[in-house]
Amino acid sequence: MGIIADLQSGVQCFSRFQSWNEERPCKQEIFWSIKVVAACLINSPESTIMKRTTSLAFFLVVILGVYSPGAPQAPNKTPQSQALPPEKAQALFQIAPGLKIELVAADPLIHCPVAAVFDEKKRLWVVEMPDYPNGPAPGKPPEGAIKILEDTNGDGQFDKATLFADNLLFANGVLPWKDGAFVTCAPHILFLRDTNNDGKADQREVLYEGFAALNPQLRVSFPILGPDGWVTVANGLRGGQIIRAGKQGEKPLNIAGMDFRFDPRKDQAEPTTGPGQFGNCFDPWGNRFVCDNRHHLRHVVFDNRYLKRNLLAGAGELVQDVDEGQAGPLSSGSKIYPLSRNWTTSNLHAGRFTAACGVFIHQGLLLGENHFNSAFTCDPTGNLVHEEILTPKGATFTAKTAREGVEFLATTDEWFRPVNLTHGPDGALYVVDMCRAVIEHPEFMPVELKNRSDLILGKEKGRIWRIFNPALPKKIEQPSLAHASAAELVNQLGNLEGYWRDTAHRLLLQKEAPASIPLLREALRDQFSALKTFHAAWLLHSMGKINAKEVEALIEHKNPRVQAAALLMAEGLPLDGSLGEKVSRLVDQPDGALRFQAALTASYLPLSLRLNALKQAAKAQPLDRWTRLAIGVSAGDNAGALALDLSRQEMNLEVETLIRELCSQAGSRRDPDEIQTLLQSSLELNPAPPGLAAIMFGLADGFSKRGGSFYAFLEGTKQIPEGVREKTRKYLTQRAGLALDQSLPVKTRLEAIQLLGMASAKDSQTPLKKLLTSGEPEIRLAAVRAIASQSEPGISKILFQDWKTQGPAVRKEILEAMTRTPERIQALFTMVEKEELQAREIDPARVRLLLQHANPAVRERAKKVLASAIPADRAKVLEQFQPSLKMAGDPLRGKQVFQKQCATCHRVGEVGVEIGPDISDTRTKTPAQLLTDILNPNQAIDNNFLNYAVTLKNGRTSTGMISASNAAGITLRRAENQTEAILHQDIEEIQSTGVSLMPEGLEKNISEKDMADLIAYLKNWRYLDGATPLGKN
Fold first, then answer.
1. What pLDDT, in 10s, does the model give residues 603-649?
2. In terms of CATH, what superfamily is 92-297+332-468?
3. How far is CA 373 from CA 387, 390, 479, in A?
């Protein structure tokens, strides 16, 4: 049985090799493949040397046979040199059962389409971007354009194109409005008008300017009109300082980490929650979804404006990744299953999104009920369109892939580049196909590929496809809405078909005809269509025509989505009477999204109503993180009082977490009376309230966020009686026993360490020193942070007492602590000068930070002390490591190199932490490309991964990537997924280090042989576990 098991193991290895061979048949990979097979055999259980040798010899013969001149060769995998004819491309599509795809527009009618939307005349507006990716040639005008397509003979094919506007540089979004259209064309949002109704824009007005315009893929895009009457656009991930055109004297709106919105009828604009990259849409009830290249479906849950009412409530993500529960903070959870050459068809290579865009909630009936209200997302690099089924869950949604292991639409045609989606008057789904050879910007390519000839191959191509269910009965064609009456438009507000409903909504808003007002008021009382009531209410609100009695009636509507909309409208009305009472009663309703909105709107209630409402909201189950945040925002200055009240009831994890979050606000606020009441009322009770620990953890969180010593505050605050101080000291010092008890769960010990850090140095430093040598890395990290939170002299020596035995993550946290204040930085320099610490042991990103420090004394001393740690010229380093490309790398040894040098910020398989860009799918990169990425990481930096230095008003400095930004503050993310929330009001300065979180200088810690092994691991990691399933070749 042993030799059979060995042979079976070998067959698995060879099958994986064979699939891999088809992708990358070259001599170096043959060698690596042999080593992989050998590794699998050597690591197979219960194998003798003889068996392993016999099996390995057998597979060497097979492998060499595969590559012998007479052996059958892998299929030709050379890239397509040109687009397939439409009929051949159509034949290659694999689509969901029962559906059909057909071509409705193509070149030469259109070129390089990137966006499309239907207007009230059933015409299709198409935005073209043939200049992608490098822009026009020097001295040449931009080729971007907007065309209006028409089907003049009713055969379902567009046969006429009118050039509405041209000479647009990287325009990427259009929204028809009145006699023209809003157009996103960074750095501007434009309004292009057709004043003589000939289908061509004759006036061009800049509405807003200041949007980032450095990369054609990362620009403001997707203008969409929401039910509330505002136009929202996706930020593009690059932000900007936005001003109204012609008003340069006004303070610009900073949209870093946010999206942007404006009222098309008024001179109003503001940042809004985001950001989206190239994707932005609403569902029928006003829920907004965005996407970016790695996150294919994100629900915008929390409106940024609420945080302005209570800035201490939190600075973090306000969007939810909607997936099957697999997503992390920086990666999409859902798998995709491409068919094209760039992706193997083997199930072991089922990938994840790398270019998610065009997210869209389809609201057309022509696909059938199974696809109605599904979420669709394009991935042009995978040549596919992905579908997920949404299900409400609490304040947000969950999603499930429509067909496991199979895409909604996929093809082997590598030129199929879906980038956008829309629904049409017929209820079909329309797919915008850019039809290009390459969808990638040179900024993110290695130097040797930046000028590749195929970057613009296909710029004259372009297609739009229509997907529908041919088995459904053909609908009677409705007349266009271009000349519809007010009554006809109001009637369309209840239409399930998104095109008709949304177009009618837009036209009613544009016209604001007095005749529509009584019709809209009548629609509020519609007993048959909640959707009609919902849109009619928002139109009246947008026009300023809704009154308190109508809002009060809507709050009692039977549909929770209508009730939630009414809550939003109530926020602008007096809430001290019956309307306020009705608002307060919605906080414990069964519908999670309604409870969430009621908790937010409670922030507008009078204090007595508000606190009672929030107590009821806290008792409702389940209490998700969004509702907790809503309660925290609405609690405001009464967070401590609410926490005390909740701490005396029976505890569960959700309530404990809420108490902790509320007390974190109290700790951040540092109001002596509030903290004295919290301590005295909780510590003097006998027995102690169930929520005592949560109260103390919350106070610890709050003080940690804003710096300073809790112990110093405790001892220096006269309002706190000595008896309460003594009980507080005793409670904190008792945590030492819990922290040191290795029989307790790690979570319990981590919480005890956090509280121990609040105690005096005299009582805490001895146990914290012991914890620095604990076996678990997370315990050591917690001990470093607890020690670093103290301000007593001698901290440096304690932190470095076991420096040589600490792992990479702990070392980085120690260096983070040592570079937080000028005093500690000087102590760090002294240690280097005394050779107690080597300069090369300070990571290159931190070296750069010190060389650019705001304090002149720090900068000057850094130049002298850290001279040996300054990264060398990248070109010379790359040349130095060229021999590693010719070495036979060992992927198993490479895994060890990865764990030591890379795993604190990168994840490959089950190894490491996902902070930086996803590097797990490296099989399509050449070793030379990987070498460049490793040694010259700042050659092309995605701004999402830039490292920042944040100087606080108290003199401290923190570093990391900015992973979230909102009205309250920012969140920094560092190695080992460590996060730090910082309030805007505490920030003195934010400075980009100009480098990514992965700094230059890795060559100081890695040899050429290590590099060869690391590259071998990155290329072959998925074949090393012996458990990767067989693929279907």
1. 999 998 999 999 999 998 889 999 999 999 999 999 999 999 999 98
2. TolB, C-terminal domain (2.120.10.30)
3. 10, 8, 24
